[in-house]
Amino acid sequence: MSAHKHLLEIYEPYGYEGPNPMRVQGTCVLRGPSGSAYYLLSIEGTLELEDNAVVQLLVLPRYNGDKIERAEQSCCTVNIARVRPGVTLCADMPFTYNDVAHWGVGKITPMNSNK
Per-residue pLDDT tens for 93-106? Predict the structure, then answer.
C-alpha cells in the first residue's frame, strides 16, 4: 500500500489543545487483538500527550458497518488510539492492547495531492 496523507480532526478528548486538525500519513492496515482492522497513522512531527511524545496513532471506524477502507480513502468518524511510548508498530506486526491506549474520537479526511 502506498502512503496516503490525511487530516485528522480531533473531537474528543474535549480538553485537547494540540494541533487540530493534525497532518498524518497512513502507513498500513493492521489486525488488532480482537480481529478488528486498524489504520496505522504516522504523525507529521510529534504530539505531546501526558508528557510523552506520540509519533503513531491507530484509528478504526467508529460506527458499525463502516469498513476500514472508508478511513483509508474517504471521510470517516473514527476511534483513535495512541501507540504507547517505546512501541513502534509496522506492517505485518501483531500488536496487543498493552501496546496502545484509547485516546479519543475524530474524523479522518484525505488531503488533496496539491496540499
Answer: 889 999 999 999 99
